[in-house]
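Hello,

Our lab assistant flagged a job as stuck in the queue for most of the afternoon. It eventually completed. Since we weren't sure the result was trustworthy after the delay, we are filing this so someone can double-check. Below is the sequence as submitted and the structure that was eventually returned. Let us know if re-running is recommended.
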Amino acid sequence: MKKRKIGLLPKVGIAITLGILLGLFFPDWAVRIFTTFNGLFSNFLGFIIPLLILGLVAPGIAELGRSAGRLLLITVALAYGFTLFSGFYTYFTCDLIYPTLLQNTSSLTIADTVEAASTAPFFNVELPPLMEVMTALMLAFTLGLGMALIKGSSLRNMMEDFRDIINKVIVGVIIPLLPVFIFGIFLEMTFAGKVASIMGVFMKIVVLIFIMTVLLLLIQFSIAGIIGKRNPLKLLKNMMPAYVTALGTQSSAATIPVTLAQTIKNKISEQIAAFVIPLCATIHLSGSTLKIVACTLAIIMTSGIDVGFAQYAGFICMLGIVMVAAPGVPGGAIMASIGIIQSMLGFNQEAVGLMIALYIAMDSFGTACNVTGDGAIAVIIDRIAKKERASL
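-- returned structure --
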């Protein structure tokens, strides 16, 4: 009988729980073991992130360029527009609510908590990255656009193989070790006696993100309903099986068959649905953007990190790009975006660990929002296609 594997979310939940419980009585030397592991793992992440960006973004841009036509450009622009809207909608909502929601934790900074909890690692191995994050991003853009324009396939095939290698590293190394990394973060915080305040922040953010996700879907389908001249609530209701499926799979790619079937059920032409849904599974990330923005802002506000609006606006604009073609595995979007979270927002190792824990704790919500929103984009593209055919 085949054993049922434990998903990433339950593993993270177990890691947080064990970190809190064992941190109450672990001796210093035991905490130092996991401090050492976290330092090594963090250095490895710093090394692999530029390669991850190059391996995921370049082939993703090249694949977008393989198809031509006005509808492709409109779909890409619409998906990116929805993602940008999600980012700024979340930013202004959190900027309005967080000062009140997190006021009881305003005197506690996460950075201070981790510093107080940390014990010196036994040793550290420096692992400098081959290139800076922005260098990797610009190289990915250059190679991706170049591969989309030239006729040759050698470089494209090589980059696709490189993407497969990066996916193997994510699935086989990074994702399995993330629960241990998160365990170490919460072990250190509990050792300092400060974890209660952090968990209070966690619970408040989870509830707020769920509410914002529901409101975002209502906004997206209201826009689709107005443009498509359809009942938005009925459209959204028909997409619910895709939402529920995504909650279980935590993968936009794995949910494509259900998303496609429910989109067609919304009376979208099969040709448009077959074009829009697989494409948007890799380029439309409204739900993931909402979670990342909400979580980073919470950490920024509770840590006293100085990030102005102009700087954060640039971060939001970059999010929709670096997550293109993020692997269809739980946590893929956050792994693709760690680089700019560190380089543009100044997050250190501990802040990144908390960010990953927060994100994965709500991974299902973001993925479900992504795939459900794909149905709204399909309604709009279908309407545009019908108007173009009618004008011919």
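-- support follow-up --
The delay was a queue issue, not a problem with the job. The result is valid. The chain has 16 helices and no strands. Residues 32 and 250 are 33 Å apart (CA to CA).
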